[in-house]
Amino acid sequence: MALAFASPAFDQGRSGQEDLAHAVARIERLGKQLFGVSACTVYLHAVDQPGFQVDSAAHQFCAQLALTDGLQVVPEKSSPFQAALGRIENLDVKFYALQPVRSRDGQVIGRIGLIHERPRMFTEGDRHCLLDLVAVLERELHTHANTPTAPSAAK
Length: 155
What we know:
- InterPro entries: GAF, GAF-like_dom_sf.
- By secondary structure, the protein is of the alpha+beta class.
- The chain has helices at about 10-15, 20-35, 55-65, 125-145, and strands spanning about 40-45, 70-75, 85-90, 90-95, 95-100, 110-115.
- The strands form two sheets. Strands 1-6-5-2 form a four-stranded antiparallel sheet, sandwiched between helices. It has a two-stranded antiparallel ribbon with strand order 3-4.
- A hairpin with a 5-residue loop joins strand 5 and strand 6 (about 110-115).
């Protein structure tokens, strides 16, 4: 039994094997909306996909933060008097959360970062949603890693 999807965007994206850059941009948009933060970034170490660039100030901010083996939330408690943790363009960062992204063999290959200009609580529900978002990203990465590139047309 074949599944029919109501969204032509889903069918179109999958039928043309959407490139990794578009898949990551979609995940970043979803994360920003889902968590109501100023930015959601995906930073991957050593990605060799054409068109995949992480040169925004938010990506650079997340890239320079130390990455732990598990979820990192700073600050752990919300306070209206929280000092800025850094600056991204005209935004004072007062909250961030980083979750490692792993390869199939468990190696850390990147991170998803949530950045906000106000301190905020990070609930247990937020933790579960972030893990779900990471799972979606990891599935995309595994799919792209296992998808052979299209052969050149023979002349």
